[in-house]
Amino acid sequence: MAPLRTDPNIIITGTPGVGKTTHCQELASRTGLHHLDINDVVKKHNIGETSNDPADPHVKIVDEDRLLDCIENDLEEGGQIIDWHGCDMFPEKMIDLVCVLRCDNKLLYDRLKARGYSEEKLQENLDVEIMEVLVQEARDSYKEEVVVELRSEGTEDIDANVERIETWIQNWRKDNGK
Ligand code: DAT
After folding, report:
1. Which of 22, 40, 99, 142 is within CB 3.0–4.6 Å of 146 for a Cys-Cys bond?
2. Candidate of 13, 35, 111, 152 to mutate for ligand 1, largest count of ligand atoms within 8 Å of Cβ
């Protein structure tokens, strides 16, 4: 049965620094869909813990039940571009596409270094990318045809990815009679 939502919900996930926020902002401005930054939701509703490291203000631990309560209406409405370094907490039936951004480790190192990450934190995140933790999480949580891996190394990749996702959104609308 086709979902009631008039626009799809899309997760943009991947290791920190891989380009999630950059992609989400560009996609939101091009499609009019909503950039749902989970870091912002967690901070706004005070439902998680942020690290003490000023170079890494990202949320570390989230109360997932409360988070889902906070975004349930948004997901039901549809048209959400979810920006989060994980994907397994979102209900499968609410998600139409999962994009896992990938990046060469040397580039990722430079991006995280520029953010001021400590060597330890850098290594932690590079390990996550090398071991394909987020790709595996996506594959374990969603049907094969819902998950796509996209390279995010240069600005030309952002343009190509955004264009591809935009086309996918148009097709989703047609297929779902919107
Ligand atoms: P994330 O939200 O995954 O942590 P981001 O969007 O904040 O990542 O990007 C981190 C930095 O890297 C930021 O300065 C933009 C840059 N960047 C990301 N993806 C890129 C790409 N494909 N080409 C060039 N720069 C990119």
Report:
1. 142
2. 111
Q: What is the mean pLDDT of residues 52-66?
A: 79
E strands within 71-161? Answer: 80-83, 97-102, 147-151
List Cα–Cα distances, 171 to 7, 21, 141, 177, in angstroms: 11, 24, 23, 10
pTM: 0.95
Average pLDDT score over the chain:
94
Task: Verify whether ligand 1 is closer than 6 Å to residue 17 (CB atom).
Answer: yes
Domains parsed from the chain with CATH numbers: 10-167 (3.40.50.300)
pLDDT(55) > 70: no
Residue 20 Cα to ligand 1 middle (Å): 7
Ligand 1, atom nearest to 101 Cα: 3
What pLDDT score was predicted for residue 57?
67
Q: Which atom of ligand 1 is nearest to the CA of 24?
A: 6
What residues form the annotated binding site for ATP?
17, 19-22, 115
Please indicate whether residue 18, judged by its CB atom, sits closer than 6 Å to ligand 1.
Answer: yes
Give the C-alpha separation, 66 to 62, whole Å: 8
Global ipTM: 0.99
